[in-house]
Amino acid sequence: MCHYKEKYTYTMKNRIPAFDDFIVEREFPFTDTSFVTRILTKLKSQILEKNLGNLEVETILNKAFRSFLVSFESNSGQSAFDDMTRVGLIQSRIDQDGNIIVDYADYFYETFEDEELYDEFGTVLARILAHERTHAGQLDKIRMGRNSYDFYNILGKIGKDPSNRFKYLSSKQEMMAFAVECVEEFRGMGYSDSDILRKIKTPFKDYQESNIFYLYIDYFDYRGHVFDNDEKERKKCKDVIDGFLKYMYQYITKPKSLE
């Protein structure tokens, strides 16, 4: 059931011009995360089952991922996704300069004492970095042709409030990043691109298999009887799902363009 009504009422005053006016997305840039597998494969003999603590693991990872502008930091809290929780990750975020920070929990070191968890860590890390690297490309477009003040000013304006779930998830900026992340999640689960395209055609079938797919399909489900007398709300939720699925389709079939 779509949760639109309880969260957010859309008006033209709510429109955030910075994204629509300054980030005219025509590409999915920087989303290749094959470097994650290469790095973790290389580190395996150094980091797996070595009885290392969090700070030792953090130091090794930060050195290995530095050239990709990725760093790891200890933080508190809990992830919204079960696979991230299993491998000791809390969230990922991007700073104003495009650096990606991955926050980890106090039991993060346990991930590196179990080969199965270590492999899952690589899969989860690849998908969340694909999400953040999509944002990095968006920020690059803001920076182009603007001085530093303009860049930070515009960046501040497009900041979304995750506590307002409808507004956050329905922004083009997040729909694109989550669509990329969802495709990479399915790929990490062993699905071929053909399999994923079939899922896009039947989104309400077995959508619980993927954390990200479930996030959008369940939250914006427009089929419920609650919309029997409110077609406008039904359409807004349907438009979000359609947009999310469109970005997934385009990322698979034409990853260098959006039409």
Tell me about this structure:
The chain is mostly helical. The chain has 2 domains: 1-16 and 161-259, no CATH class; 32-158, no CATH class. The chain is built from 12 helices and 3 strands; from the N terminus they run ααααβαββααααααα. It has helices spanning 4-7, 17-22, 34-47, 54-65, 82-86, 115-143, 148-158, 165-170, 172-188, 193-201, 211-219, 231-253, and strands at residues 70-74, 89-94, 100-104. A 3-stranded mixed beta sheet has the order 1-3-2. α3 crosses α6 (115-143). The chain starts with a helix and ends in a 6-residue tail after the last helix.
Radius of gyration over all CA atoms, rounded: 19 Å
Largest sheet: 3 strands, mixed
SSE ordering? HHHHEHEEHHHHHHH
- Please indicate the count of domains: 2
**Number of beta-strand segments:** 3
Give the N-to-C terminal Cα separation. Answer: 29 Å
Strand order of the largest sheet: 1-3-2
Are there runs of 5+ residues with pLDDT below 50, and where?
Answer: 4-27
Q: What is the mean predicted local confidence, pLDDT? A: 82
SS field, number of helical segments = 12
Fraction of helical residues: 55-70%
Class derived from helix and strand content: mainly alpha
Q: What does the overall shape look like?
A: globular
Strand content: 5-15%
